[in-house]
């Protein structure tokens, strides 16, 4: 139990920016969705760690984490439904295929 | 205080929830005769409930500060309800076409649930409720955007929107989590956090993340790239909803957040807002000029309008009541004019399936009333004097000038002239350009006519009757 808080924060920062980088560079829609999950989980780590180390007397951060997990599941379900729809219409799930509307 | 009494503070939200549940049950269990009348039932119910929720009610804090209402939040919710009614009226034809007829009840159910999310977002007093409201506002909206599921553009717009919405809320959540680390000693209530805010570097970093997440929703440049694509691809009436109600709710949410939380450190982020405003107005205008598709054009025009709305935020940050009044008034005026334009566009699209600006050539010859209405709405958006748009722009400029932002006002003024150019391009197309075979004469359906009449009345009257503005200013603080 003597891992300092900064280790967790660095981990979550790395995860967050990996997520942002992945979201921007990945071409596959499912991979983009996975990057989004990385971002949300980085946030979850942040909340849980801040709660545990800085404000052990309250539960706000933990509650927030639980809600984020729930909403993220809904978001993913919706995104996958739409990606399936994309697959039906263009037979691929590459972001490059979504180019009917540009400029 | 007992919980039942606290629930009465949430009257608009509770009414919306009741409507959603009732409509789902009706859709599941009702017979053919009721199903045939579903549009009328849904609209009628919504109008009645909007009137009830517009009646004055207790204001204050509920659930330990989770949920706050003031007279201003109530007015703002009434404005959003009004806009949704107007969108419902114009969506009638689209809801009943071949592709969507069998699932038209979902349009009403989904729209009302997004509206409920927006209401929660506006009167949230805690970051958790704010986040949940935001997600409730954006998730059903995605399904509405991808509603025409056999049209490639609609699917594409839906995919773009769902990814961007999730990404932006991820950015925002990261900001909130940093806020929690910095000032969360007494929880994430706006009240207790605002006392602890002191503009340390960590708090400013959190603020930047949070603002950029919210700027995606308001579609400020440089977070605007999804806007035009989604507006073009989404069904026209959903674009109307997105451009006015969704954007308006995000602006109102930012407004109340600034009042409750970020106001005390406004001097540290005012230049960020100023830069966003300049970029938004200019880039929105420049891109709008070269568009050929009407919906895409309206998307860029709504980006630049968002910049003007944010001009009023400069006043809100310093606690000037005029800033708040001007923002609410601007949104009210923008709502009637923009929904009016979208109503005309959707009437034309439903009847002729034509959406490019050059298709509008010679529209005046065949459809004089529609073109005159469209012209008035465009004049109002551009800010030509007798119409409401002039007054709303005037108040926004004045509130920014009150706080000494003369350069910002000057840039915005130059941009108003540029915006006149492209708004008048459509007017020119309708009235002056010749066309061999213009769009045939259109018989507008009754519901759209009512909606257009309300929008026209608003555009003509809101500016001239000064009572609206002074009435709003009594509730600002």
Account of the 3D structure:
The complex is a heterodimer of chains A (103) and B (477). Chain A has helices at residues 5-25, 29-53, 60-90. With 103 residues, chain A is an all-alpha fold. Chain A has one domain (5-97): Helix Hairpins, CATH 1.10.287.3510. Chain B has helices spanning 3-7, 11-29, 32-36, 38-54, 71-90, 92-95, 104-122, 127-145, 152-183, 190-196, 201-218, 225-233, 236-260, 266-289, 294-317, 321-352, 363-366, 368-382, 388-402, 406-431, 446-464, 467-475, and strands spanning 60-62, 67-69. In chain B, a hairpin with a 4-residue loop joins strand 1 and strand 2 (67-69). In chain B, strands 1-2 form a two-stranded antiparallel ribbon. The longest helix of chain B has 32 residues, at 152-183. Chain B is an all-alpha fold and 477 residues long. Chain B has one domain. Chain A binds chain B through residues 16, 19, 23, 29, 32-33, 36, 39-40, 42-43, 46-47, 50-51, 54-55, 58, 60-61, 63-64, 67-68, 71, 74-75, 78-79, 82-83, 85-86, 89-90, 98, 100-102, and chain B through 127-128, 131-132, 135, 139, 142-143, 146, 149, 152-153, 155-160, 162-163, 166-167, 170-171, 173-174, 176-178, 180-181, 184-185, 187-188, 228-229, 232-233, 296.
What key attributes describe this structure?
heterodimer, A: 103 residues, mainly alpha, Helix Hairpins, B: mainly alpha, 2 strands, 77% helix, globular
Oligomer: heterodimer
Annotation field: number of helices of chain A: 3
The chain-level mean pLDDT of chain B equals: 91
Strand content of chain B: under 5%
- Listing every helix as H and every strand as E from the N terminus to the C terminus, the arrangement of chain B reads HHHHEEHHHHHHHHHHHHHHHHHH
- When the domains of chain A are counted, the total is 1
Number of domains of chain B: 1
CATH fold title of chain A: Helix Hairpins
Structural class of chain B, please?
Answer: mainly alpha
Give the SSE order of chain A as H and E letters: HHH
Mean pLDDT of chain A: 92
Question: CATH class of chain A, please?
Answer: Mainly Alpha
Count helical runs of chain B. Answer: 22
Radius of gyration based on Cα positions of chain B: 21 Å
Q: Helical amount among residues of chain A, as a percent range?
A: over 70%
**Number of beta-strand segments of chain B:** 2
What is the strand tally of chain A?
Answer: 0
Basic shape of chain B: globular
Strand order of the largest sheet of chain B: 1-2
């Amino acid at each position: 139990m003597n891992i300092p808080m900064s280790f967790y924060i660095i981990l979550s920062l790395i995860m967050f920016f990996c997520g942002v980088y992945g979201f921007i560079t990945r071409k596959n829609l499912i991979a983009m969705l996975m990057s989004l999950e990385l971002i949300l989980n980085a946030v979850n780590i942040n909340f849980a760690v801040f709660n545990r180390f800085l404000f052990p007397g309250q539960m706000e951060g933990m509650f927030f984490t639980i809600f984020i997990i729930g909403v993220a599941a809904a978001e993913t379900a919706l995104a996958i439904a739409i990606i399936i729809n994309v697959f039906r219409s263009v037979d691929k799930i590459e972001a490059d295929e979504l180019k009917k509307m540009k400029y | 205080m007992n919980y039942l009494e606290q629930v009465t503070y949430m009257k608009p939200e509770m009414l919306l929830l009741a409507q959603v549940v009732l409509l789902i049950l009706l859709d599941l269990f009702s017979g053919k005769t009721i199903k045939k009348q579903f549009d009328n039932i849904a609209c009628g119910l919504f109008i009645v409930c909007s009137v009830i929720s517009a009646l004055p009610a207790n204001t204050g804090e509920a659930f330990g500060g989770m949920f706050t209402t003031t007279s201003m939040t109530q007015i703002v919710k009434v404005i959003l309800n009004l806009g949704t009614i107007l969108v419902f009226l114009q969506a009638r034809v689209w809801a009943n076409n071949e592709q969507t007829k069998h699932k038209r009840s979902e349009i009403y159910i989904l729209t009302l649930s997004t509206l409920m999310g927006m209401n929660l977002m506006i009167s949230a007093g805690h970051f958790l409720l704010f986040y949940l409201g935001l997600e409730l506002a954006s998730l059903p909206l995605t399904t509405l955007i991808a509603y025409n599921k056999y049209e490639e553009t609609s699917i594409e717009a839906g995919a773009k929107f769902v990814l961007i919405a999730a990404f932006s809320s991820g950015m925002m959540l990261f900001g909130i989590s940093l806020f929690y680390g910095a000032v969360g000693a007494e929880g994430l209530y706006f009240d207790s956090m605002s006392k602890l805010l002191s503009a340390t570097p960590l708090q400013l970093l959190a603020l930047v993340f949070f603002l950029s997440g919210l700027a995606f929703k308001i579609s400020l440049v440089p977070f605007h790239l999804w806007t035009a694509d989604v507006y073009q691809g989404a069904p026209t009436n959903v674009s109307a909803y997105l451009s006015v109600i969704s954007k308006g709710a995000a602006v109102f949410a930012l407004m109340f957040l600034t009042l409750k939380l970020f106001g005390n450190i406004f001097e540290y982020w005012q230049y960020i807002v100023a830069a966003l405003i300049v970029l938004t107005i200019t880039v929105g205008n420049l891109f709008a000029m070269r568009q050929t598709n009407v919906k895409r054009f309206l998307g860029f025009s709504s980006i630049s309008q968002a910049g003007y709305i944010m001009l009023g935020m400069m006043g809100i940050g310093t606690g000037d009541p005029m800033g708040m009044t001007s923002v609410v008034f601007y949104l009210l005026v923008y709502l009637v004019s923009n929904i009016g334009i979208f109503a005309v566009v959707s009437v034309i699209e439903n009847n002729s399936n034509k959406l490019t600006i050059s298709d509008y050539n010679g529209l005046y010859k065949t459809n004089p009333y529609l073109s005159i209405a469209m012209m008035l709405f465009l004049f109002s958006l551009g800010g030509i004097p007798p119409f409401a748009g002039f007054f709303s722009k005037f108040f926004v400029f004045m509130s920014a000038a009150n706080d000494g932002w003369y350069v910002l006002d000057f840039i915005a003024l130059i941009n108003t002239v540029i915006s006149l150019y492209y708004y008048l391009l459509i007017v020119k197309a309708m009235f002056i350009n010749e066309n061999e075979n213009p769009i045939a004469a259109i018989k507008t359906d009754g519901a759209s006519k009512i909606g257009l009449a309300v929008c026209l009345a608003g555009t003509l009257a809101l500016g001239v009757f000064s009572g609206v503005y002074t009435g709003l200013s009594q509730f600002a603080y």
